[in-house]
Design a protein that fits this description.
2 domains, about 375 residues, mainly alpha
Length: about 375
């Protein structure tokens, strides 16, 4: 059975194209080439790495279901109902704690780094959030939700969240606004406006936020990103930068207990026990300048052309990795990741990027040779 996320990849790009056309018709700009490519690069990095351990994660869930479940759910419809409510409820708590506990935020922060808000942002994911989320979902295995049911519902929940990453859909009124997680709700979640911080954690439903006091309506224009802007289009640095910040805080902490507390404390805490400075006022946020280093048309054209190839290769790896020889798969994956690193560097004018790109092209050629040799 193919991964539903892999099957949805062409649909994602069709919808992104529609959003671009819609924005152009309305005379608004919701995409920047460099930022959108970084979103996609983080997502591709996550999917390439996920090929290594997705089966392991499902195997862990299956083991708990097989050996430790407390009940066996009889009617299939009940298993699907429990899975839907359970996945949504447990996602809420994983998501909320991923904003309240540093070691979880270090993974989840990747999804919030973009200073734009569009469908490409939905694809900006961390390589390890699937591991941080797994323990939260294991209670469903204990409750007797079969592996395939859980995997299908979880995939559908992920797919639902794609469409809510847009500025072009206005607030929807009526009962739907009180039940479902909608673009206006999720814009609040991605904003760094003081009134919006740590709000609207829902996946498909918004009812948990209303129930547990974390709901906020969209009132003022959201400003997107993280409070301490990333300032980079390097998708690898995006994945690890907060881990380095935590390590630096731990080293700087004077009290031994604080060196440990850094990892489990809130992102709003610092080693001396005081809160971080208050977020900037709305006027300062409105004047915040997005990270946007200039790149020549020649560089942009080259990166765009090569990126189409990288996307096609990634899609093939996601769809048919089980049938690809290990050597070709490893070389192909390394070539993709090298390309993503090089593209970010090229868009930032980094001198090392050309060398990385040369190595990436060599890896790609080696992967193609190994694949053709083994297949032949």
């Amino acid at each position: 059975m193919h991964d539903p996320i892999a099957l949805a990849v062409p649909v994602f790009f069709v919808l992104i194209a529609i959003e671009l056309a819609w924005a152009k018709k309305r005379g608004v700009r919701v995409y920047r080439f460099n930022d959108a490519l970084t979103d996609l690069s983080c997502g591709i990095t996550s999917q390439i790495v996920l090929l290594l351990w997705a089966a392991t994660q499902l195997a862990i869930y299956t083991w708990v279901y097989t050996h430790a479940r407390l009940v066996t759910i009889g009617p299939p419809w009940l298993a699907w109902a429990v899975a839907f409510v359970g996945v949504d409820f447990l996602y809420y708590w994983w998501h909320r704690l991923s904003h309240e506990v540093n070691v979880l935020w270090a993974a989840h922060v990747v999804h919030h780094q973009s200073e734009d808000y569009n469908l490409a942002v939905a694809l900006r994911q961390s390589v390890i959030t699937s591991w941080t989320a797994l323990p939260f979902y294991l209670p469903l295995a204990l409750l007797g939700v079969p592996t395939l049911v859980f995997a299908a519902v979880h995939a559908l929940s992920t797919l639902y969240q794609f469409w809510i990453h847009t500025e072009l859909v206005a607030r929807m009124r009526g009962p739907i606004d009180r039940i479902l997680n909608l673009p206006s709700h999720h814009r609040v979640h991605h904003a760094i406006n003081p009134r919006y911080l740590d709000k609207n954690y829902g996946a498909t439903l918004i009812v948990w936020d209303r129930l547990f006091g974390t709901y906020a309506e969209e009132i003022e224009k959201p400003v997107y990103g993280i409070t301490n802007a990333l300032g980079s289009f390097n998708p690898m640095w995006a994945q690890i930068h907060y881990w380095f910040e935590l390590a630096a805080m731990a080293r700087a902490a004077r009290r031994p207990l604080d060196k440990l507390k850094v990892w489990i404390a809130s992102p709003a805490w610092k080693p001396d026990g005081h809160a971080l400075p208050a977020p900037p006022p709305p006027l300062a946020l409105a004047r915040r300048v997005k990270y946007d280093p200039p790149a020549s048309r020649r560089v942009v054209g080259y990166v765009a052309f090569q990126y189409v190839i990288v996307i096609a290769v990634t899609f093939c790896l996601m769809m048919w990795h089980g049938a690809i020889a290990t050597g070709a798969l490893v070389l192909g994956g390394a070539a993709v990741l090298g390309g993503l690193l090089a593209f970010g560097g090229l868009l930032e004018g980094r001198r090392w990027a050309a060398y990385v790109e040369g190595a990436r092209l060599a890896l790609g050629a080696a992967a193609l040779f190994v694949w053709m040799w083994l297949d032949g």
